[in-house]
Specification:
Radius of gyration: 26 Å
Order of helices and strands: HHHHHHHHHHHHHHHHEEEEEEEEEEH
Structural class: alpha+beta
Strand content: 5-15%
Shape: globular
Number of strands: 10
Distance between the termini: 50 Å
Helix content: 55-70%
Largest sheet: 6 strands, antiparallel
């Protein structure tokens, strides 16, 4: 009965989403008693809808934890011998489950807007909830008619197992954080649609939308950072970013969200960039939808890509066309009613933010074209590949120029600054013309990041200022790690017998031997490697694992983390002479990449908490 209850919860949630849309139409259009009742009732409907979606997700997780082999999704993506963590996370380690997680977060986010939003004009809030329900209804229809996660099958003894590459603790963290980011952008999109419907684009709208944009940006940052490190240690290839189309699908919303975050701050604080903010809200959610289409359509072959049914891709493509096409049409029809807002000088903090946003948009365009062009070309029978060389050469210089602007921008005054001051500040980042000096650029950005704290009482500095400083400093730390990884990594591929030694960077690594080991649902050949540098001696144990359900061989890297870098080791296959392939990397300061990513997310969190605390104090002061 659990599966039937989950399906019923989805149907009821879909019905309430339809009701929510109807109430939004009545609440916006009518000013009589019917309109009043609609405006009063829509909050409760949104909250119950979110609760039902969460119930459906909880019931699906229960089916996986119980290994209910009468449910098709459990049979195809689980096994009774799996550890409980992978049963739990395996509920969304597949197409249908991940889409249910998506719509669950979508419904819960809408419920949170209904419960906590008190800044927006009531008609704009009603229109926003209607837009959010419209997005949710499309995905409910997708689940119910195309991707039912509760579909029953004749009961079997056991399941087919989960993709071994997904059997990692990262599965419990990476998809939920990434989806929370995607769905946070859907809320920003709904706010923009609601404000356009009621012609209410202004600072109050921006202040209401800003926490959602900031929260989405934090989750996207965490999700991308975690996903990068997961791929780094799980796939055994020694890299942290490959410009894979599915990696790009998560990067594009982050780029758009970063631009939106800066733009919404200008609108909230200075009443500028009104049209630009609304447009970026539409673009950011568009990138989320494009990413969803790429992963779910079956046009990509990737460990990330769950769906292989083109009909599902066509369904999502239709949703994308409806949502984004409708929003763009609304934007075109209402843009004439959006006032220009406060005028500012090009040489000002607002001007710096505009330049930064333009550069972010150019990078976004480069990534979008590089990702979609091979797919479009393949549709016409032309096979080509766009890989790291293109993205590095096309986006790299623009990104470095953007970092220079980011270092200078926070030091400029609002509305107007003088050219002499700008020239003096640019001295902090002279390396913009020498993009290969990434370390120097990181150092310049680090110095510029902390300069806004100069002359302040640090104990009384608002948390949003600390958040900006920490986030910008985190980017400098990540950039330093990227530069070190690119410039100083040493790699060695060797075929060795037990007892033989190879060197990589400063390390001397000896293969002591190979032994079989057994895990919960896998067996492996495990190498024992002794690594020495100076007086330091460490043991690493990379594995070649075999999973029986489904039959798969994977490489499990062993990584030694030191303060100054990582020794990364992978065990390959033996040859006919008894030698084993061993691949080694010494990667100085590579951990700065993910430490910086964590700092960027922490900066966003500090800003979010600071703004929440400020709003809370203002409400208390008012009564």
């Amino acid at each position: 009965m659990i599966a039937e209850a989950g399906l019923a919860a989805l149907w009821f949630a879909a019905a309430l989403a339809g009701l929510q849309i109807l109430l939004a139409v009545l609440g916006v259009r009518r000013t009589d008693a019917v309109g009043d009742q609609a405006r009063e009732g829509i909050r409760a409907v949104a909250i119950v809808q979110g609760a039902l979606a969460a119930l459906a997700m909880a019931l699906l997780i229960t089916l996986f934890l119980r290994s209910d082999m009468s449910v098709r999704l459990v049979v195809e993506n689980s096994h009774s011998a799996k550890p409980w963590l992978y049963k739990f996370a395996g509920a969304w380690g597949n197409h249908e489950g991940s889409m249910l997680l998506w719509v669950t977060i979508l419904g819960v986010a809408g419920a949170a807007v209904a419960r906590f939003e008190r800044v927006l004009d009531v008609r704009t809030l009603v229109a926003t909830l209607g837009a959010q329900a419209g997005i949710a209804l499309g995905f409910y229809a997708f689940l119910l008619f195309s991707s039912n996660p509760f579909d029953r099958v004749p009961a079997t003894i056991d399941g087919m197992g989960l993709n071994p590459l997904l059997q990692d603790p990262g599965l419990a963290f990476h998809p939920p954080t990434l989806y929370a980011g995607y769905v946070g952008l859907s809320v920003a999109f709904s706010f923009a649609v609601g404000a356009l419907v009621t012609r209410d684009v202004g600072p109050a709208f921006a202040r209401a939308m800003r926490p959602w944009v900031l929260g989405a940006w934090v989750f996207l940052t965490l999700g991308i950072t975690a996903g990068s490190y997961w791929a780094y240690y799980e796939l055994g290839w020694g890299g942290w970013w490959f410009w894979d189309p599915v990696e790009n699908a998560s990067l594009m919303p982050w780029l758009a969200a970063t631009a939106l975050l800066h733009s919404v701050n200008v609108l909230a604080a200075r009443d500028g960039l009104r049209a630009w903010t609304v447009m970026l809200a539409v673009v950011a959610f568009s990138m989320s939808m494009i990413g969803t289409f790429l992963v779910r359509s079956g046009i990509l072959t990737s460990v990330h890509a769950f769906a292989v049914d083109p009909e599902r891709g066509a369904f999502i493509l239709a949703l994308l066309a409806i949502y984004i096409g409708g929003a763009l049409a609304l934007f075109a029809g209402r843009i004439g009613t959006v006032k220009a807002g406060t005028v500012f000088s090009p040489i000002s903090r607002e001007g710096g933010l505009v330049v930064n946003n333009l550069l972010l948009s150019v990078i976004l365009g480069v990534v979008l074209i590089g990702t979609l062009y091979p797919i479009v070309a393949a549709a016409f029978g032309v096979q080509l590949s766009v890989g790291p060389p293109f993205f590095n050469k096309a986006a790299g210089p623009i990104a470095l120029a953007m970092v220079v602007v980011m270092a200078v921008g926070p030091l400029l005054r609002w509305r107007r600054d003088d050219g002499a001051a700008l020239l003096a500040l640019l001295v902090l980042a002279p390396i913009g013309v020498l993009p290969l000096l990434g370390l120097a650029l990181a150092a310049g950005l680090a110095v510029a990041s902390v300069m806004p704290l100069g002359g302040r009482n640090l104990r009384r500095t608002p948390l949003p200022i600390w958040g900006m400083v920490v986030a910008h400093l985190g980017l400098a730390v990540s950039l330093a790690g990227m530069a070190c990884d690119s410039a100083f990594t040493a790699e060695r591929l060797a075929a060795v017998r037990p007892g033989e030694m190879v060197t990589v960077g400063p390390w001397r690594v000896t293969l002591d031997g190979i032994a079989p080991v057994v895990g919960d649902n896998w067996s492996a050949l495990q190498a024992r490697l002794t690594a020495r540098v100076g007086d330091t001696v460490r043991v690493l144990r990379p594995q070649s694992r075999f999973f029986a359900t489904p039959p798969t061989v994977t490489s499990e890297s062993a990584i030694l983390t030191q303060w100054n870098g990582q020794l990364y080791t992978v065990l390959g296959q033996p040859d006919e002479t008894g030698r084993w392939q061993v691949r080694l990397w010494w990667k100085p300061f590579v951990t700065l990449i993910w430490a910086g990513g964590g700092m960027i997310a922490l900066g966003g969190l500090l800003a979010l908490v600071g703004r929440w605390w400020r709003a809370r104090r203002q409400r208390r002061a008012q009564g």
